[in-house]
From TrEMBL:
Region (Disordered), start-end ranges: 1-20
Keyword Oxidoreductase belongs to the record: yes
Sorted UniProt keywords: Oxidoreductase
Gene3D superfamilies referenced in this protein's UniProt entry, alphabetically: 3.30.465.10, CO dehydrogenase flavoprotein, C-terminal domain, Uridine Diphospho-n-acetylenolpyruvylglucosamine Reductase, domain 2
Protein's UniProt name: FAD-binding PCMH-type domain-containing protein
GO molecular function, one term: FAD binding
Alphabetical list of PROSITE patterns matching this protein: FAD_PCMH (PS51387)
Residue ranges of domain FAD-binding PCMH-type in the record: 24-249
InterPro entries, per database record: CO_DH_flav_C (IPR005107), CO_DH_flav_C_dom_sf (IPR036683), Diverse_Substr_Oxidored (IPR051312), FAD-bd_PCMH (IPR016166), FAD-bd_PCMH-like_sf (IPR036318), FAD-bd_PCMH_sub1 (IPR016167), FAD-bd_PCMH_sub2 (IPR016169), Mopterin_DH_FAD-bd (IPR002346)
Record carries keyword Chloroplast: no
């Protein structure tokens, strides 16, 4: 039975200055409901263009309080049976409501996907990891400060064709790959980076009982392909699980996150690297970068450059340079070009030499 809910948040009047706008409280009503199953949840959201799913809420509720996100109907999916991890052979299925902390504690992750565990533990705080779900993590909105401040009018992601405040202002925590002058928003997830590296797929339920798999490499839409479209899900589609291939025996992986402080901070740059070594030879390699792209950035060209080559820091740096070739930079983000090269080189060295030791 839907419950009529009322919440209070501060809404800033974009016609007034930020200081003057602060403190103006607006009461906004919304419908809150708890569906009995996935089918009901999908039908409820699909039927109402102003409806949205609510899971861990660690990002969504902030956005609602700030007046950035204003759904009329919240469909709470937290009690649906979408929690848990199942390992079958080479595949791990992670329910979308599994928390980050639960996934980090999964033995198969420690044994076969260490870079996923390291990325999870490098993200957020323990309290947040106990609330935040894997599905929600993949769907988190950008941390762009201008996107999250409704008193800033120019944001193509929030208001199509309104401009981009970040391009003309401070933009240090923004992206350099998959962006252009219309939007330089960063995808801030850590765990999505190693998941992209191993070709994980989202399992999605849609209206009418439809189900489909979406490779995570195709799940998000780059900002330079349309700033206001963040992913390929249609309204009402629900991520129910993520299928993650486990790395076969002999592979080694790790996640390196470079940030301004050691905890509770987003990445300036990160590198998820998995390698299969044959002596000094890189028999196979998977690479993805975080902190630099509008989507978690799979570095396929670098992988091709390194497969079948020997451990060589110069070659590693060349692979890094190839990855960031064509980067779109602003004065505030130009440092990320060299940082990305250095981060990838360091992590490749760590993985290839440790694998040999
Ligand atoms: Fe908006 Fe993107 Fe510009 Fe941020 S970078 S202000 S999200 S358009």
């Amino acid at each position: 039975m839907p419950v009529r809910g009322v919440r209070q948040h501060r809404r800033r009047d974009p016609r007034r200055s930020r200081a003057a706008g602060r403190g103006r409280c607006v009461m906004r009503a919304f419908v809150y409901e708890r569906p009995a199953d996935v089918e009901q949840a999908v039908a409820a959201v699909a039927a109402d263009p102003q409806a949205a799913f609510l899971a861990g809420g660690t990002t969504q509720l902030d956005l609602m309080k700030d007046g950035v996100w204003t759904p009329d109907r919240l469909v709470d999916i937290t009690r649906l049976p979408l929690r848990g991890i199942m390992v079958e052979g080479q595949l791990m299925r992670v329910g979308a409501l599994t928390t980050m902390e639960q996934l980090a504690a999964e033995p198969a992750v420690t044994e076969r996907l260490l870079m996923v565990r390291e990325a999870l533990l490098a993200g957020a705080s323990t309290q947040l990891r106990n609330m935040a779900t894997i599905g929600g993590n993949l769907l988190q909105r950008t941390r762009c400060r201008y996107f999250r401040d409704p008193s800033v009018a120019a944001c193509n992601r929030r208001s199509p064709d309104s401009g981009c405040a970040a391009v003309d202002n401070t933009a240090r925590m923004h992206a350099i790959l998959g962006v252009d002058e219309r939007c330089v928003a960063l995808h801030a997830s850590d765990v999505a980076v190693p998941l992209v590296a191993v070709d994980a797929q989202a399992l999605v339920a849609g209206p009418g009982g439809q189900q489909r798999h979406i490779p995570l490499t195709e799940f998000w839409v780059r900002a330079d392909e349309g700033p206001s479209i963040e992913h390929v899900l249609t309204h009402g589609e629900l991520v129910t699980a993520v299928d993650v291939p486990l790395l076969p025996a002999g592979w080694r992986s790790g996640y390196l996150k470079v940030r301004d402080r050691a905890s509770y901070e987003f990445a300036l740059c990160s590198a998820a690297v998995a390698v299969l070594m044959d002596g000094d030879l890189i028999a196979d390699v998977r690479i993805a970068l975080g902190g630099v792209g509008s989507v978690p950035w799979r570095a396929r060209q670098a992988e091709q450059m390194l497969r079948g080559t020997h451990v060589d820091p110069v070659r590693f740096e060349q692979a890094g340079r190839a990855t960031v070739a064509g980067a779109y930079t602003l004065p505030g983000t130009a440092f990320k070009v060299d940082l990305a090269v250095a981060t990838l080189t360091r992590q490749l060295l760590a993985m290839t030499t440790e694998a040999n030791s």
